[in-house]
Amino acid sequence: DHLITSSAVVARFFVALHGKAGVNKELKKEAEFFGDIVIVPYLDNYGLVVLKTLAICEFGVYISAKYIMKCDDDTFVRVDAVIEEVGSVDGEKSLYVGKINYYHQPLRNG
């Protein structure tokens, strides 16, 4: 087991609004109870995924985060490995881990 007990790691879940007011009411209650949900003020829509990414970056500036990690809800993260990788980087340098596909074409139909 790789339990993460570092207070230097904080998880936040960025969630867009739902089309049903009842779902948003429950979401707000859960956000207030756990304190780890940030509700972004627009309806959840794949076309607005860039806005959610910007909200994550803005939040990182607001809380003075040294590093920000964005991943989707279907991603399993080895936080211990991420911490190790971040620790191996000179603190004055940026770190990008991932893959940019410059030739990706968006799906227009389907």
UniProtKB/TrEMBL annotation:
Q: What is its main location?
A: Golgi
Q: Which cofactor does it need?
A: Mn(2+)
The pathway that the record names for this protein is: Protein modification; protein glycosylation
The entry's cellular-component GO terms read:
Golgi membrane
Q: Does the keyword Repeat apply?
A: no
Regarding the membrane, this protein is recorded as: Single-pass type II membrane protein
Keyword terms of this UniProt record: Glycosyltransferase, Golgi apparatus, Manganese, Membrane, Signal-anchor, Transferase, Transmembrane, Transmembrane helix
As recorded in UniProt, its EC number(s) are 2.4.1.-
Q: What molecular function terms (GO) are annotated for this protein?
A: hydroxyproline O-galactosyltransferase activity
Subcellular location per the Swiss-Prot or TrEMBL entry? Golgi apparatus membrane
Keyword Oxidoreductase attached: no
InterPro entries per the UniProt record, alphabetical: Glyco_trans_31
Q: Which Pfam families match?
A: Galactosyl_T (PF01762)
**Family listed:** Belongs to the glycosyltransferase 31 family.
- Spell out the PANTHER family in the cross-references: BETA-1,3-N-ACETYLGLUCOSAMINYLTRANSFERASE, HYDROXYPROLINE O-GALACTOSYLTRANSFERASE GALT4
Q: By what name is this protein known? A: Hexosyltransferase
Organism (species)? Opuntia streptacantha (Prickly pear cactus)
Name the lineage: Eukaryota, Viridiplantae, Streptophyta, Embryophyta, Tracheophyta
